[in-house]
Amino acid sequence: MEENKVIIVDDHKMFRSGLRFLLSNIPNITVIGEASNGKEFLEMAENETIDIALMDINMPEMNGIEATRIAMEKYPDLKVIVLSMHGEEEYYDQMLEAGVKGFLLKNSDADELIAAIEAVLAGKSYFSQELLVNILDQKRLQKLRTDAVKLSSRELEVLKLICDGYSNAEIAEQLFISHRTVDRHRANLLSKTGCKNSTSLVMYAVKNKIVEIE
């Protein structure tokens, strides 16, 4: 079978080494180089034929977004898989526009890494299931922020924990805030949403798709 050449682009050497080790056990995959930022990657791409780039987002000198955009213009057959951390969802639309084919969390196991590589090599896209769930959660929160009722980020956190059945004391412990602060947030939630109690708050959250009932 045809050999597929891979380059790892990440500013953490230890992570690159671990990923190289995982890839060494995948048939027909050969790591031909590593780069610590987008600029180094583009320089290597001028001298090497690369099938897949495993691309970090936040890197010094040149980030993964810009590097991917430039690389895809020059090498349209290149397949780029993003190596992401939680909290970087804000960059996903930009990466998609740049031409990325896959998204993986950095803590993904070898099986998911193989699945992502096989998918993009077959001309498909791949999104980590954990990332998809997280993105959907973020979009639900964003939707609520655009509704008539404006809730702060902390109020949204408290509301979701209320829906999960946490008591005020447990919410305080989860969010590292005082019991009195939780009481204030709960009172604000009741006031802003027009709800009378925790049960109606849960119904409000379900109606506005902040949470889903299985």
TrEMBL record:
<dbReference type="InterPro" id="IPR058245">
    <property type="entry name" value="NreC/VraR/RcsB-like_REC"/>
</dbReference>
<dbReference type="InterPro" id="IPR001789">
    <property type="entry name" value="Sig_transdc_resp-reg_receiver"/>
</dbReference>
<dbReference type="GO" id="GO:0006355">
    <property type="term" value="P:regulation of DNA-templated transcription"/>
</dbReference>
<keyword id="KW-0597">Phosphoprotein</keyword>
<dbReference type="InterPro" id="IPR011006">
    <property type="entry name" value="CheY-like_superfamily"/>
</dbReference>
<dbReference type="Pfam" id="PF00196">
    <property type="entry name" value="GerE"/>
</dbReference>
<dbReference type="InterPro" id="IPR016032">
    <property type="entry name" value="Sig_transdc_resp-reg_C-effctor"/>
</dbReference>
<protein>
    <submittedName>
        <fullName>DNA-binding response regulator</fullName>
    </submittedName>
</protein>
<dbReference type="InterPro" id="IPR000792">
    <property type="entry name" value="Tscrpt_reg_LuxR_C"/>
</dbReference>
<feature type="domain" description="HTH luxR-type">
    <location>
        <begin position="144"/>
        <end position="209"/>
    </location>
</feature>
<dbReference type="Pfam" id="PF00072">
    <property type="entry name" value="Response_reg"/>
</dbReference>
<dbReference type="GO" id="GO:0003677">
    <property type="term" value="F:DNA binding"/>
</dbReference>
<keyword id="KW-0238">DNA-binding</keyword>
<dbReference type="InterPro" id="IPR039420">
    <property type="entry name" value="WalR-like"/>
</dbReference>
<feature type="modified residue" description="4-aspartylphosphate">
    <location>
        <position position="56"/>
    </location>
</feature>
<feature type="domain" description="Response regulatory">
    <location>
        <begin position="5"/>
        <end position="121"/>
    </location>
</feature>
<dbReference type="GO" id="GO:0000160">
    <property type="term" value="P:phosphorelay signal transduction system"/>
</dbReference>
